[in-house]
Amino acid sequence: MFVLIFVALVLLAHWYLWHRLVRRTTRPGRLRRVLTWSLVALLAVLVTTFVGTRMGLESWVAWPGYIWLALMFYLVIILVVLEVPRAVATAFLRRAERRDRTPEPEPEPVAVPVGAAPPVEAAPPAPPSSPESPALSRRLFLGRTTAAIAGVSALGTVGYGMSSALGDPVIERVSVTLPRLDPRLSGLRFAVVSDIHLGPLTGLGHTERIVRMINGLEADVVAIVGDLVDGSVAQLGALARPLRSLESRYGAYFVTGNHEYFTAEGPGEWIEELKELGVRSLRNERVEIAHQGAVLDLAGVNDVGGAASGDGPDFGKALGGRDTSRSTVLLAHQPIQVDQAAGHGVDLQLSGHTHGGQIAPFNLVVGLQQPVVSGLATVGGTQVYVTRGAGFWGPPVRVGAPPEITMLELRA
Predict the structure, then answer these.
(1) Which Gene3D superfamilies match (predicted)?
(2) Sign of the alpha-carbon dihedral angle for 270, 274, 276, 282
(3) Domain spans, the chain
(4) DSSP 168
(5) Percent of the chain with pLDDT over 70
(6) Is 277 exposed, middle or buried (0-12, 13-18, 19+ CB in 10 A)?
(7) Among 24, 41, 278, 330, which residue's Cβ finds the most Cβ atoms within 10 Å?
(8) What is the pLDDT of residues 290-330, one digit of tens each?
C-alpha cells in the first residue's frame, strides 16, 4: 500500500510540474517536446534509483535520482505556495484582456458638402498579436516568472540542505534531571547517536567523522539508537569498520531500528558484525552500569519493525524483575515506544527515527505519527529524548533539521 501511494504521488507530482513548468511556459513546438521528454527522463532516473539501490547497485545510480527527488519535492511545495499570487495575477490579466477586446465606438457620420473631396479615412487598427507572435504574451510571461522563482528557490533550498546533510553533525549538549537518580550517578554522560544510515551515498568518511566526534566527547556510554545501516554486511561492512575505534568508559551499545529489518538477511548478521567491532547489541535485555559505587539499569528493546518477523520489542523481558529503586535508561529506536516504557516505570528513553523531519515541512507530518519529533519531552511520566540523527535517508538533504550527535548528561 505504501509503495502504491508513493508511486501515485510521484506520478502526480511530475504531471503537476509538467503543467506548471512546461505547458504554462512554452508554446506548442520543439521546445515543449524537449522539456516534456526531459521530465520523463528524470522520472525514469528516479525509478532507476529506487530499484537500483534495492539491488545493491553503485552510488552513481543513487546520486542523481535522490537529488532530483529533493528538487521535485521543493518545486512542488513552492509552486503550490505560489498558486495564490499566481491566481491573483491571472485575474488581473483576464481583466486586461477583456478591456483590450472591447470594440471601439463607431465614428459618427460626417456630412460632406456637394463637390467637396471625401475625408481621408484613418487606417484600421492593427490586429492583436497572434499566438505565434514572437512577442511574449502576458500569460507566458506570468508562467515563466513563476517557474523561474520556483526553480531558483528550489535549487537554493536543496543546495543548502545538501551542505547541511553532508557536513559535520551538530553537537547538542543536554542535561536531564531524573528525580530517582542516585546522586552518585549525577554527571554520567551518554553520547547518543542514531540514524547513521550507512548506505550507497555515505562513504567511509561519514563513519570516520562520526566516530571522531563521539570520541571527542569522552562519554561514559555510547548509545547507537537504531537505523545504523541501509544494506547488508556484504555491501556495507567496510563502511562500519571505523566503529571499532569508538571510545567510552563503559562501552558502546546498539538497538535495532526499522531499517535493520529491510534486508533479506534481517538484523542478525549485523548483530554479529557489531559484536566483532566491540559494540554490544541490547536485544530486549538490560545491563548494569556501575558508576562511583552506584548502579544504573541500561535496557534496550528491538524496534517495532521486527514484530512482523517475530523479532519485535519485548518490554517485559527487557525490564521485568529489575530493582525498581534504580533509575532506568531505555534505548528504543522509535519515540512511539515511550507509551510502553512509561508503563514499565522507565525514567528516560533515548530514541531517534524521526530525523527531526529531515526535510521541512516533513516535521509537521512526523508529528502526526510520533509523540515527539526532536528534543526532550515527557510522555506519561517518562522523559524521552529524540535525537535528529547523524545521517540521512534518501536524498542527501537536511532542511530545518541539521544532523546531530548528542552529549546527554544525567543529573540527580
Answers:
(1) 3.60.21.10
(2) negative
(3) 2-99+138-163, 169-411
(4) P
(5) 89
(6) middle
(7) 330
(8) 999 999 999 999 999 999 889 999 999 999 999 989 999 99
Residue 199 near residue 168 (C-beta atoms within 8 A): no
Angle between helices 233-240 and 204-216 in degrees, nearest 10: 40
CB 189 within 8 A of CB 409: yes
- How far, in Å, CA of 233 to CA of 254, rounded? 16
Total count of residues recorded for the chain: 412
For the whole model, what pTM was predicted? Answer: 0.86
Alpha carbon 84 to chain centroid, angstroms? 26
Distances (CA, A) of 340 to 234, 256, 296, 315, 367: 35, 17, 20, 7, 19
Helix (H) or strand (E) holding 385: strand 382-386
* Residue whose grid cell is 537518580: 181
**Dmax (CA) of the chain:** 128
CATH superfamily, region 169-411 = Metallo-dependent phosphatases (3.60.21.10)
Report pLDDT digits (tens) over 160-206.
999 999 999 999 999 999 999 999 999 999 999 999 999 888 889 99
